[in-house]
Specification:
The complex is a heterodimer. In chain A, strands 1-2 form a two-stranded antiparallel sheet. Helices cover about 75% and strands about 0% of the residues of chain A. In chain A, helix 3 packs across helix 13 and helix 4 (about 60-75) packs antiparallel against helix 5 (about 80-105). Chain A has helices spanning about 5-15, 15-20, 25-50, 60-75, 80-105, 110-130, 155-175, 180-190, 190-195, 200-225, 230-235, 240-250, 260-275, 285-300, 300-315, 320-325, and strands spanning about 140, 230. Helices cover about 75% and strands about 5% of the residues of chain B. A two-stranded antiparallel ribbon of chain B has the order 1-2. Chain B is globular and about 60 Å long. The model of chain B has no long low-confidence stretch (mean pLDDT about 85). The chains are: A mainly alpha, B mainly alpha. At the A-B interface, helix 6, helix 12 and helix 14 of A face helix 3, helix 4, helix 9 and helix 11 of B.
């Protein structure tokens, strides 16, 4: 139960925001940050817990977004069903790429490369295929009813997204304590040793990638409903893949609250940059890239790691090293 | 059916394009061969070099082929410094960290260029930019013929450097057995940085060869980088000969599939080759056992 207390506290705090303010600026900022957190949480499962660094999570985000949008616009499917189908489709793409890559024994930089290539292939296909609207993109018709997964105010959107994030958060400690989670961490720490002990590493990694892709695809589907427009450059854009790994790495890869923490910090930095420098294209991403390098160099376990260290230091202050050892 | 003349001209043009691809891939494969890491900043560094070649022409009036002799040493120093001062210390030898640091560098460089120069596309005009020479039934653009010859020369020079010079021997020693090289008194950090510098200098030359017949904008290098990854994977990670042959093969494949499928789908053809090679034969045609 102890693992769930911080999650409950954070989610309750975020859920209270609409009670305090109805400012669209605040809610919009939080939606953007939570969306990054959700996409990052998907990456965190595969990259943080599983140690498989994907550079192409845009493949799942874009699939979730396109399936959600195209099913509604071209086939008249209900928005909620389309959203669910988008998640399933994203998971299927994740399972397919995972099966191909992991069965071929691709690891480390090869795995990063092949995920990047798949995301690029999907981006190019989406920019020429007629069903996706090709270069023009897909516009979801405005229909402000809850049955159509559209709302007058931002509050319901915000709460739905928060619920999705909460679900992904609760999933992490549940997985970490399960047999599956233990296998996944074993594969991350030493795949050969895990295999020698009888862990089916390939199957574990494919399962992790499928679940990871489903979470990120949920973010894509939500994006489509919130902005009502997607094109190939938005849905499959390389910046999605970068934000997906930036949030967990900055917050602390392989920790439950890391992606959420990282997303809030990164997006706050992005907004602060815009405030100082105006809406200059590129500058926020320069900051993100710089933050990524600095975090890898000086805080390899992210903000969560820094917080743990600070907590240890606080508990140990004023004691001799010997006493601290017993504390 | 296509006439043989069109086919021959497509193949020759593909070889010309492929040569420049090969040079970009050569830089990537050198770095991979020694550091055993994929440099995700390669495309962004190529874009930076293209901007440098562009402004050397615009501001200093330098012909790109002359600028190459200045930009190559400059980018060697830049690459050396990046590895020695940023990538090496930040990554602390962990492969996953190197991946992230080179990705972070790519994001910083590409978007700094976007911030400074905006998304505008720039081209330069050279008196010989549109000259052609006839080779059999085909007409080839002069800048591309020069590029082809220059790439062959650079590849031979790099091959000779690796084979006979002291630093080349040190690089090969580190690539084969890092610990042993270190015990033999080789400064591994220096060799890493020299290799990264060499790879970056290849990009400077490639940029100078590209700019007479191509354009530059902050995303220009990205068009080449996935192709370069494909070539490196096809030719075998770390193999200089593989990069050269792989580059020429990919150039011809692209030219021919562009002829039959059209421009944008031709690119998908390259990616599919890439994914297939990665999945079926990840060590490539000439690579050693991964």
């Amino acid at each position: 139960m102890k693992a769930y207390l911080p999650i409950a506290a954070v989610v309750a705090l975020l859920a209270a925001v609409p009670l305090v303010t109805s400012s669209n600026v605040v809610l919009n900022f939080l939606v953007v940050a939570l969306l990054t957190a959700l996409v990052g949480q998907g990456w965190n499962l595969l990259g943080g817990y599983g140690g498989q660094y994907s550079f192409g999570h845009a493949a799942f985000f874009g699939t979730g977004a396109y399936v959600t949008a195209v099913l509604q616009v071209r086939y008249g499917v209900n928005a909620w069903i389309a959203f669910a189908a988008g998640i399933v489709a994203g998971a299927a793409v994740g399972a397919a790429i995972g099966a191909l890559a992991f069965r071929a024994g691709l690891r480390g930089s090869y795995f990063a490369l092949v995920t990047l290539a798949f995301a690029e292939v999907l981006r190019i296909l989406a920019s020429v295929a007629p069903v996706t609207g090709a270069g023009v993109g897909t516009l979801i018709r405005l229909d402000l009813r809850w049955q159509a997964f559209q709302f007058q105010s931002r509050v319901p959107f915000y709460l739905i997204l928060l619920a999705l994030v909460a679900l992904s958060l609760v999933l992490m400690p549940a997985i970490a304590r399960s047999r599956f989670g233990a296998w996944l961490v074993a594969v991350r720490e030493n795949e050969d040793a895990a295999r020698a002990l009888g862990v089916d590493a390939t199957a574990i990694k494919i399962a992790a990638m499928t679940l990871s892709a489903a979470i990120t695809a949920a973010g894509g589907g939500f994006y489509a409903q919130y902005y009502l427009f997607i094109d190939a450059g938005i849905a499959y854009g390389p910046w999605i893949s970068i934000e997906a790994l930036l949030a967990p790495i900055v917050g602390g890869a392989g920790t439950v609250l890391g992606p959420l923490l990282g997303a809030l910090v990164v997006k706050t930095l992005g907004e602060a940059t815009k405030l100082v420098a105006g809406d200059a294209p590129g500058l926020d991403l320069v900051i993100y890239g710089g933050v990524l390098i600095l975090v890898v160099a000086f805080a390899p376990r992210g903000i969560a790691g820094l917080a743990t260290d600070a907590g240890r230091w606080w508990a140990r202050r004023g004691k001799t090293p010997a006493e601290a050892g017993h504390a | 059916m296509l006439s043989p003349a069109i086919l021959v001209s497509a193949i020759l043009n593909g070889l010309m394009t492929g040569a420049v691809y090969a040079l970009v891939a050569l830089g990537l494969t050198l770095i991979y061969g020694v550091l055993h890491i994929i440099n995700f900043a390669h495309g962004a560094l190529l874009t930076a070099a293209m901007f440098a070649a562009f402004f050397a022409n615009r501001w200093l009036g330098l012909d790109p082929y002359v600028a190459a002799f200045g930009l190559a040493p400059l980018f060697f120093v830049l690459g050396y410094a990046l590895q020695r001062l940023v990538i090496g210390p930040a990554a602390r030898g962990d492969d996953r960290n190197i991946l992230l640091v080179t990705l972070g560098l790519a994001v910083v460089i590409e978007n700094a260029l976007l911030y400074v120069f905006r998304a505008d596309t720039r081209t330069i005009d050279l008196p010989y930019g549109f000259d052609t020479i006839a080779v059999g039934p085909a007409f080839l653009a002069v800048p591309r013929v020069i590029a082809f010859a220059a790439v062959i020369a650079v590849a031979l020079a790099v091959g000779a450097l690796m084979r006979w010079s002291d630093i080349g021997k040190a690089i090969r020693a580190v690539a084969k057995e890092k610990l042993g090289a270190e015990l033999a008194g080789i400064d591994v950090a220096h060799v890493y940085a020299v290799t990264f510098g060499l790879g970056t200098a290849c990009l400077a030359v490639a940029a100078c060869l590209l700019i007479p017949s191509y354009y530059v904008n902050p995303g220009a290098g990205n068009a080449f980088v996935l192709i370069a990854f494909t070539i490196v994977v096809l030719g075998g990670m770390g193999s200089v000969a593989g990069a050269l042959i792989g580059g020429l093969v990919v150039g011809v494949v692209e030219s021919l599939s562009g002829l039959w499928l059209g421009e944008s789908l031709g690119q998908v053809g390259i990616f599919i080759v890439f994914i297939l090679v990665l999945l079926v034969r990840p060590r490539g045609l000439f690579g050693e056992q991964a």
